[in-house]
Design a protein that fits this description.
The chain is mainly alpha-helical. It contains four helices and no strands.
């Protein structure tokens, strides 16, 4: 679960949305983490995999913009 605390806020917001949750724009990182981990269908491995995909997509997009 520590992997959530090391994530960017924008990644956690996207993760929550992907999980079918409705995060508000003013949530702090700890609140986003709690929202995700307390959701009904929380499965740590699944969430970790989805978050990894989100981070990879973001970093790929950032690299493409930098070129």
């Amino acid at each position: 679960m520590a992997f959530l605390g090391r994530s960017r806020k924008e990644d956690l917001r996207m993760l929550a949305t992907e999980l079918g949750l409705a995060p508000s724009d003013n949530l702090k990182i700890i609140e986003l983490k709690d929202l995700i981990t307390n959701s009904d269908g929380y499965d740590e491995e699944f969430v970790k995999d989805v978050l990894n995909v989100i981070v990879e997509e973001r970093t790929t997009t950032e690299k493409q913009k930098a070129m």
